[in-house]
Amino acid sequence: MPVSPTTTRGRLWLLAGYGAALLLLLAAPLYLSDFRLNLLAKCLAFAIAALGLDLLWGYTGILSLGHGVFFGLGGYAMAMHLKLEASGGKLPDFMGWTGVAKLPWFWEPFRSFAFAAAMGIVLPALLALFLGFFTFRNRIRGVYFTILTQALVIIVFTLFVGQQKYTGGTNGLTGFATLFGEPLKSPGMKTALYFATVAGLLAAFLLCRYLVKSRLGKVLRAIRDGENRVRFLGFDPSLYQMAAFAVSAALAGLAGMFFVLHVGIISPSAMAIVPSVEMVLWVAIGGRGTLIGAVVGAVVLNEAKSGLSESFPDMWTFFLGGLFIVATVFLPGGLVGLVRQLAGPFGRRNPSHEQLGESSGEQQPVAPREHSG
Amino acid sequence: MALWLTQLFNGLSVSSILLLIALGLAITFGLMRVINMAHGEFIMIGAYSAYLVQKIFQSSLPQGWFDAYYPLALLLAFALAFAIGLLLETALIRFLYGRPLDSLLATWGVGLVLQQLARTIFGAPNVGVTSPSWLDGGLRIMTGVVFPYKRLFILALVALVLLAMYLYIYRSDAGRRMRAVMQNRDMAACLGISTRRVDAVTFAIGSGIAGVAGCALTLIGPIGPTIGTNYIVDAFMVVVLGGVGKLIGTAAGALGIGMLNTLFEWGSTASLGKVLVFLCIVAFLQWKPMGLFAVRSRSLDG
What we know:
The complex is a heterodimer.
Chain A lengths: L7 H19 L1 H4 L2 H26 L7 H20 L6 H5 L15 H24 L5 H21 L1 H4 L5 E2 L3 E2 L2 E2 L3 H27 L1 H18 L4 H27 L1 E2 L6 H14 L4 H21 L1 H17 L4 H10 L15 H4 L11
Antiparallel strand pairs in A: 1-4, 2-3
Chain B lengths: L1 H30 L7 H22 L8 H23 L8 H23 L15 E5 L2 E4 H23 L1 H11 L1 H6 L4 H23 L11 H14 L4 H21 L2 H18 L15
Helix pairs in contact in B: 1-5, 1-8, 1-9, 1-10, 2-3, 2-4, 2-8, 3-8, 5-6, 6-8, 9-10, 10-11
InterPro entries (chain A): ABC_transp_permease, ABC_transptr_urea_perm_UrtC, LivM-like
Keywords (chain A): Cell membrane, Membrane, Transmembrane, Transmembrane helix
Membrane topology (chain A): Multi-pass membrane protein
């Protein structure tokens, strides 16, 4: 809900816009080639992760640079299921190469799709709860938390590369064939997976919308704008922060599962530092603190990435770097904020706090600086 | 015994490199609250300036002079990183004071651009820098224990930089102004200190030290456009562990992480070692959330 318009007409227009967007997405298999459809599906999967990150950063004010890890955990859970299905009753090929004789016990249950899919969501959430428990409770927050999440990325990355016999090492997991016995590459399967992703994104969006509109969402925003005030009002911010972190991680895991289904490979490089920070950029460009902004940012940037990096691979990095600077200095509200600014003179501006996104405390040029002495 | 000595020295050596990298961060992050993700790229700038000086000495100066290139490279690395740091502060960072997370993202972008720039200019593959011959070989302590001169040189360099920073921050007029601004910006401004200038110079010094660190890194391995990213997260951990705002904390943090890293990697594997170090840090922060040497403050959000 980028705008919570006060007028019925504004609300109708907004609903019409969302409806049109959904129709466009649902009709995409009719007008897109297989390649483009696959690309769009990948972008939509990323959008799910962006929603989660937005819930954490845009609404709760906690910046995680470690969402690649949660994304990767979801991806690996699904990938292992596909790998086991592809290998039939035998050991996955990479385990044979590295001299593992028997499937390790912890991979055994991944033969079941339901278990793998559940783990793809539960594992990231548990890891987030674990890290959140040991940080938020001690009031480790802000940049300290951000740095810790980045360290998490490094260690999980090294761990997955290092434990080659269990994870496939640098190459990751690939060479999948079927899902439920149906070839992954068949057109019918591709379309079905696309619709599954649209459904997943819709569900994630509605969940986030529900959370944001609920009492919980109010507390989250209050924590973002003044954590100590919330504490003095008798809330325990760390519980809410942990909840937001866990939901956010679970959504990233879900995104990772869809990603594997569309792309057919997961490797540690998908959970390295650069992809993790890129996720943050999707939210920043789209507009943090607005759910639709996160979705738009993820889709637009990833489409732009595949377009630009196909033709000018070098330019993409310059472009990406430039975007980070532009987004933080000139576009703190992201694309959604820009649209609102342009629409400002025409539409009624929404006086609510939400519109400014995170800007409340942070944007003031001469914000009072904390004194460290 | 010999093995222990070697491990101890390795730990010390790793710590010294971490410290050199973290010192620059301790200034920009610890004192100015700016998360400079481009810090790693300032390391890269320092490393490539050493590479350039070496190239020039090889191609256009007499053979015998080659060994003298290193001190010059150190100076150039500092100066270049200092200048680019000053530029960055004026053009970008000063708009982001008081917004640490935004400064993090913007400087990450700067880092990406600088990396790609280096890739365009010098090419993506790593390049080697020939060390001066007076740093070849090592000091033989006992049978089987040799301390390479290069590592000893880095240790000495770090000690020197640490001393210089101590003198600058705690014993010079400029340092006093800097501490005043960091402790109470408004009051410092009222007393006639140009906070703009102090900010710019402080940031530039932090960047310059990163340049020196990059120059030192050329001694121990090949350099490439992403050389900085390998160290930057560890260096941030040093600052977090050591506590923000005090040099002694940074030194202790670097020693702790460097030693633990060496110890765990020796005792288990490299990848498990990293996990163990991370767990140790998180466990430690349970006990002292503000790091080893926290600056006491009465402000609630300090």
